[in-house]
Specification:
The protein is α/β, with parallel strands linked by helices. It has helices spanning 2-6, 48-56, 78-85, 103-114, 119-132, 138-141, 150-162, 180-197, 208-214, 232-236, 241-247; strands at 10-19, 22-32, 37-41, 63-68, 71-72, 88-91, 168-172, 200-205, 217-222, 225-230. Helix 4 packs across helix 5, helix 4 (103-114) runs parallel beside helix 7 and helix 5 (119-132) crosses helix 7. It is globular and about 55 Å long.
Amino acid sequence: MESAQNELSVVLRGLRKSFGDQTVLNGIDLTVAPGETLAVLGRSGSGKSVLLKLIIGLQKPDAGSIRIHGREITELAFGKLNQVRKKVGFLFQDGALYDSLTLEENVAFPLRRHNRMPAAEQKNRARDLLTQVGMEQTRDMRKLPSQISGGMKKRVGLARALVMDPDIMLLDEPTSGLDPITAGEIEELILRLQETHRMASILVTHDLHGAQTVSNRVSLLHEGAILAEGTFEELHRSKEPFVSKFLRGDA
């Protein structure tokens, strides 16, 4: 069993998190294999973003285990945790770009902090990734975040999440706040990046269409627990009333 778990990119067991008297996650078990995209579905406020922050170590669980490439991270010292984080890309819901940096500088920022790559190579790496995500004009790369649209911020956020060549990608509501056409473009981009980089990915969203488009498997989070897990076809066969309600868009 231990060797099988070590072959998985992410393994969560018995994960619990509360804030005051509010229990947000109540015994979460999840696994993600290399090259697989798992979509975690749920209503707003169900704890999806908290789940990602626990996986990356931005918050600590009250109980449970988080293993990244077989390594338990819940008790790691800050320096060792940062070593693990270098192999995990994170797309924040709002992009979380630095307002005072150009798009190119935003993407290169993790390299400046964590990599001894020469400045010219950092710039080339940033520009290559910006091109991969559809920011093809050099003049765009020198813009500030305030000068671009929400969809473009998502693209730049994806480029920055990829800059350290991660094995694992965490995506927090990648299509939220976008019009349907732009959301579709972001979904196509995520699929293309997955084909190119073959990462293990966890996508949290309330967007059923987006989840169905980009994921291999889905988990439905409800009242702090995983209520159902499997393919969309398997979820549609679930006897749980809330699962049917959620899939109909009535939840």
